[in-house]
Structure formats: structure tokens, C-alpha cells
Design a protein that fits this description.
Blueprint lengths: L63 E15 L2 E8 L8 E4 L3 E8 L8 E3 L22 E7 L4 E6 L4 H6 L4 E6 L8 E9 H9 L10 E3 L2 E2 L2 E2 L6 E8 L6 E11 L2 E12 L4 E7 L5 E5 L2 E2 L2 E2 L5 E6 L29 E8 L3 E4 L10 E3 L4 E8 L5 E5 L4 E6 L9 E2 L1 E4 L4 E7 L4 E7 L2 H5 L3 E6 L1
Parallel strand pairs: 1-4, 3-8, 9-13, 12-20, 21-24, 23-31
Antiparallel strand pairs: 1-2, 4-6, 5-7, 7-8, 9-10, 10-11, 13-16, 14-15, 14-16, 17-20, 18-19, 21-22, 24-29, 25-28, 25-30, 26-27, 26-29, 30-31
The chain binds CU-O-CU linkage and copper (II) ion.
């Protein structure tokens, strides 16, 4: 049996089926041993955790997904708090869009926000005109609409969000997941899509979207500490998105099978989801209740605060956990570093004085220009006092090294956390022409200047 998420707040108790559900959770010491597994009995009154509703496909063709997204003001419950926010199709998180590699995705955005907006397809290498970035391209005006359409060439868990008035609109509820399935993947019994957002951020962002609070409580699909009830004995593919403006979500003792750009070269056991990051876990549902917590993090890295509760798992049926799914991990080694550097970014600044890339503050930047078809080695040094998740539009990147050390296996991402004083070297195949935004995905940092443009022509 394999456990994928470790209960860090649990009590030693007889198996759940031998005691009445007392509806209480006691805090206790972790006492997991093979001989006497500890069990958490989750209170049943916690809200039930389910995936966000999926969008309806308006195109009957098998290789096309056509969806209408209406962005409009929406009052919603962020945990216990009523928020005067926004939503796509009246739901937060927005509808999950589910397609397969090779499908054409067509999304008609109807803007009823009363504000200009756009949709950016985070992590998807779209043609520049479909990127939704509020740079060059005009936003979709209030009352207007725009149809995005492109072919999905990458498998993975992606997301969509405005890229105009970004920190404010994302904070208020405009975000959703785009799942692109690879038909070659082995089937699982079910999937769970989880979107995390900082619970306090939503309200904080109302007055001042540039604040970057470190969440001490997380919304999971809009709920505080909900209860997930997977059938035991089943394998679940859990897709995670950190949609928060500034919060880090760290999970340990998990079976991570994928990050931003689909399946990893091999499974890993921990993941740090910076703002904008995605990951996928394989969950083998066993009979025991568990409490899932996040390792506390701040913009300065792991912190000494207590573990943050996320959600509880109360599997039904009392069956043993199934065996591992055999994912087609590539096992590929990293590309050797070519040794030269084509482009350098130095991250500097501070919360007080704003954030900069190469001493430039958005929007007063000079784009870097690279040749279409070239291989670009980008070296990023973070000499500022905070972590910054770097995100590039239009093209993915491979991590060549972190502080001079190559990853153990090939690692392709579109969002990568860069810690304080760290240097990372990235390899980009500049195969997508456009004026691509390149920025920190802590949205208040991006708005405070940490954004530039990489022109591919
Ligand atoms: Cu998720 Cu430039 O964005
Ligand atoms: Cu930043």
C-alpha cells in the first residue's frame, strides 16, 4: 500500500469502522507506524469537496471543445466570507475546460464585468494574438466579446485568468482550470481538480490588490477545510492549481506525477506550488481518514509556523489502497547546459520600492529580442529579498541548472520559483513569434514592476 499524502494532524484511534463517528478531530502527535496506522476521524459537517463543474462542450465534433465564458460580477462565499467579486459563468473557480491533445479549443468570452478584461491561457503555447496579454493587444472592452481559438498541443494541467487588471480580477474570482488529456495515459478511476486560493487575499485584494499577504488559511475550490470522500480502493488523479496572488503551497510525502507541463520524467515526493504553478498527484485511496496539511511558507521560503490545514480525506468503503498506476514516465535526462548565456535577468527591488528586472520597472522596459528558431539560454539571478515565481508566455522552458546543479531528470516548466540569492539557467526554444510577457507570477510584484517582454521574431 502506498500513502501519498501524510496526515500531519492526526490522532491514534481504533479503525474508523469500529468506533462511532464522534464528529470530532483531536490534535495529536503523528504516530504513523506500519504496525499501528493512526486514524483521523473527520467531522461529517465539513463541506464536501468536489471538483469545479466542467464547461459544456457546444461543439459535437470529437476533436473540438467550444465553450462560452461569461465574465460578470458575482457574489460568492470565500469560505466563511461573502465576497463581492467576479466569476466566469457564475462559478468560482470557473468551469474546468477538459480537452485532449490535438483538440481545437474555442472560447467565446463575453465581458459583462463592466471593466476591460482578457483571458490568458497560462502554460499553453498559443499564437500571440490569442495570448490575452494586456500588452500590445487591446483588452476585451466592457460589454464586448472576443473568441479565442487555438489547437492544444501540450498535455497537462493549465489555467486561464485575466491578463488585464490582473491582480484585482484574479483576486476577485476569475480563474479556472484547463485540462488537456493525453489519450496515451493509463486510465484512473477518477479525477479531482483542486484550485487553491488564499482565503484572506480575496478580501484584502478588494481595497488594494498590490498587498501580498501570506495565506494562513487556504480556500480549496472556494471551501475552508472541506472533506473529500473518494471511494477507497481507487486511484485518483488529483490536479492542483495554486491560483493565489502571492501564497506558496508546499506538500510533502505525496506522489507527484506531473507539474506545469504534464508528466515528469519520474515521480517525486514533494512539491512547492508557487503562485501560478500546477502539479498532479496520484492518490491511492485507502480506508483511513486523513488530514491534509501544507508546509507553511512565506515569500522568504519555508517558515516556522504551524502546518496549514487544507482538507480532510474520508474515503468510503473500507477497501485497501490500490497499487501504483504505471505512468509512462520518460526517464529522460536533462539537456546538457550549452555553457553560453544568451540572455540574463537580474531580479532586484523590495516591497517598499517596487520590483525590477535588469533595473527596469514595468511598463518602462526595453524588450529583449531573440531570433525565431533559436535556442536561448536565459540565466536568472534573484538578488532581491523575496522568492519570485518566474513565468514566461508563449514558450515553455527547460531547467538546465539551479545554483549550478542540473536537475536529476529533464524538467520542463512554464512557472518556476526562484528563491532568494538563487541562480537558475533555463533553455528556451524560441519557436513562437510574438512579444511575450515575462514576469513574476506574484501578481502584486508584476504590477509593481517585475515584468518585461521577450520578443521572438
Ligand atoms: Cu498566469 Cu502572465 O500569467
Ligand atoms: Cu515576485
Amino acid at each position: 500500500m502506498t500513502l501519498f499524502l501524510v496526515a500531519t494532524a492526526c490522532k491514534v484511534a481504533p479503525p474508523a469502522d469500529s468506533v462511532p463517528d464522534t464528529g470530532s478531530v483531536e490534535q495529536g502527535m503523528t504516530a504513523d507506524t506500519a504496525a499501528s496506522p493512526s486514524t483521523t476521524v473527520l467531522p461529517t459537517e465539513r463541506p464536501l469537496l468536489v471538483s469545479p463543474a466542467e464547461a459544456t462542450d457546444l461543439d459535437p465534433a470529437p476533436d473540438a471543445l467550444r465553450v462560452v465564458l461569461v465574465a460578470a460580477p458575482h457574489t460568492w462565499m470565500a469560505g466563511e466570507q461573502l465576497v463581492d467579486g467576479f466569476a466566469y459563468n457564475g462559478q468560482v473557480p470557473g468551469p474546468t475546460l477538459r480537452a485532449r491533445v490535438g483538440d481545437t479549443l474555442t472560447v467565446e468570452l463575453d465581458n459583462e464585468l463592466g471593466l476591460d478584461t482578457s483571458i490568458h491561457w497560462h502554460g499553453v503555447d498559443v499564437p500571440f494574438a490569442m495570448d490575452g496579454a494586456g500588452w500590445r493587444a487591446a483588452p476585451v472592452a466592457a460589454g464586448g466579446s472576443f473568441t479565442y481559438s487555438f489547437v492544444l498541443q501540450q498535455a497537462g494541467t493549465f489555467w486561464y485568468h485575466p491578463h488585464f487588471d490582473t491582480a484585482h480580477q484574479v483576486d476577485r474570482g476569475l480563474y479556472g482550470v484547463l485540462v488537456v488529456e493525453d489519450p496515451a495515459d493509463p486510465p484512473v478511476d477518477s479525477e479531482l481538480v483542486l484550485v487553491f486560493d488564499g482565503a484572506a487575499e480575496v478580501e484584502a485584494g478588494k481595497e488594494d490588490p498590490t498587498v501580498d499577504p501570506t495565506p494562513s488559511r487556504w480556500l480549496v475550490n472556494g471551501l475552508l477545510e472541506p472533506r473529500w470522500e473518494p471511494p477507497s480502493g481507487q486511484s485518483v488523479r488529483v490536479r492542483l492549481l495554486n491560483a493565489s496572488n502571492a501564497g506558496y503551497l508546499a506538500l510533502e510525502d505525496v506522489r507527484v506525477i506531473a507539474t506545469d507541463q504534464g508528466l515528469l520524467s519520474g515521480p517525486e515526493s514533494s512539491v512547492v506550488l508557487a503562485p501560478g504553478d500546477r502539479a498532479e498527484l496520484e492518490w491511492s485511496a485507502g480506508p483511513d481518514d486523513r488530514e491534509i496539511t501544507a508546509v507553511p511558507w512565506s515569500l522568504a521560503g519555508p517558515s516556522a509556523f504551524p502546518a496549514v490545514p487544507l482538507f480532510g480525506v474520508a474515503a468510503t468503503g473500507g477497501l485497501a489502497a490500490p497499487g501504483e498506476v504505471s505512468w509512462p514516465f520518460s526517464g529522460d535526462p536533462p539537456t546538457p547546459d550549452p555553457g553560453r548565456t544568451d540572455l540574463r535577468y537580474t531580479f532586484t527591488g523590495s516591497a517598499e520600492n517596487g520590483w525590477e528586472i535588469n533595473g527596469q520597472t514595468w511598463p518602462e522596459i526595453a524588450p529583449d529580442v531573440v531570433a525565431l528558431g533559436s535556442e536561448v539560454v536565459l540565466e536568472i539571478r534573484n538578488v532581491s529579498p523575496a522568492h519570485h515565481p518566474f513565468h514566461l508566455h508563449g514558450m515553455v522552458f527547460e531547467v538546465l541548472s539551479v545554483d549550478g546543479v542540473a536537475p536529476v531528470a529533464r524538467r520542463v516548466e512554464d512557472t518556476l520559483d526562484i528563491s532568494v540569492q538563487q541562480t537558475v539557467r533555463l533553455r528556451i526554444e524560441a519557436d513562437n513569434p510574438g512579444d511575450w510577457m515575462s514576469h513574476c507570477h506574484i501578481l502584486p510584484h508584476a504590477e509593481d514592476g517585475m515584468m518585461t517582454v521577450l520578443t521572438v521574431q
